[in-house]
Amino acid sequence: MERKNKATKTIFLLLLSMLLLHLDCSFCHAWNQDAIIGKWRDLRGTFEIEVYKNKEKYHGKILWLKEPNYRENDRKGMAGKPKIDRDNPDLALRNRPLLNMDLFWGCVFTENQRWEKGLFYDPLKGKTYQCSISMDTPEWLRVRGYIGTEILGMTMFLKRIEG
Length: 163
Prior knowledge:
The chain is mainly beta. The chain is built from one helix and eight strands, in the order H-E-E-E-E-E-E-E-E.
């Protein structure tokens, strides 16, 4: 019986340790609600966004694209033209340029030190998701797009380039 209790205790401590190691670091810091305002670049260096505040809500718009124009072999015959939101399900929005378009919008700073309740738009898929944002450090932003629950989503990491 004692051996079973020791094994149970060991498993519990192991699981607790794993949980603590994977906690979102945004809970480790007391962020100023405007801490995310500034310019950020994705890890692959393909785009830059500017996070800005409008009426207590935070938004992120595309400022720069590594490849702002469609390639020579574009599948829809738009070679050399500036990239637009051509996969948007709303036909009226398909001609808007990607530059200066909001990738996320409507996020509010919450008591758990995160920016939540916003929406994230993926122009490559033409889909909109729920959005939450957290900061690991003042230099790293974690933008999560998801459907229903954050467990079922994707995370985009951004590095600050100007703040």
